[in-house]
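Team,

Forwarding the record for the chain on the shared tracking sheet. I've put the sequence and predicted structure together so nobody has to dig through attachments.
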Amino acid sequence: MNEIRLRRLAYSDLPSVLAIERRSFGTPWSLAMFVLELSKPSGICLAAVRDDRLIGYLVCSRYADVWHLMNIAVHPEVRREGVARSLLEQLFTEAGDDARYTLEVRTSNQGAIAMYERFGFRRAGHRRRYYHDNGEDALIMWLETRSVVEA
């Protein structure tokens, strides 16, 4: 299998991003939401590419001293092949060892929750009826530092 190459997400990637987004989420982000995140100079937006084809992406925004993982998705045909893990590892490298992170994830998404926990994220609470498509709760997770946690 060909190697995954990671790079910064570009505006030209957005058609592929939107295609993956629509296949991944019941309430996908709009083009405007991705454009807004890409325009933030303090954010980290990453693309995973294999054979010149975008197969996954990650969007993370910085708010003061905390990184908020906003969106991560992998093309359905290549899920469970380490793409999300590679994107998260690159995020941690770019943000630095002392960075702190938070995210929300659907309480039903046990695969994602397990992956985040392998990286050291800890459950910190719930946001009731956070997801508008079905009213599902979000699990809030935090990772205080990567300097002592390795996946």
